[in-house]
Structure formats: structure tokens, C-alpha cells
Amino acid sequence: MTVTFPLTEKRNADELLKHLIQHNLSYPGNCAVSLKVHVALVTSSLTFALSTARTAW
Fold it and tell me: Which domain of life is it from (predicted)?
């Protein structure tokens, strides 16, 4: 499953990685993160954790 996370000045890539860890998702452990200009694409087979992280973001 791949989910998009919008990025802003306050919610940058570093904050995203910290947020993912809070939801038991770790890069490069069990998810992949691809950064674009204003969005990050996060892919993981842990669909529940990924969905919860996106909702909380």
C-alpha cells in the first residue's frame, strides 16, 4: 500500500520519519519513503499502521 503525506515547512521529512516511528513504521525497515517537492510517498505492507499514521498526520 502506498500513501501520500503532504509536506510543509513545519511538517517536513524529518518530522515525517519521527511520526512514522510512532506508528511502528521505520525506514528502511518495514517501509519505503520517496520524497517529492511537497509530498512524501510512503509504501509499506503494514496497511493498518500506514493508514493510522496517515490519518494522524
Answer: Bacteria
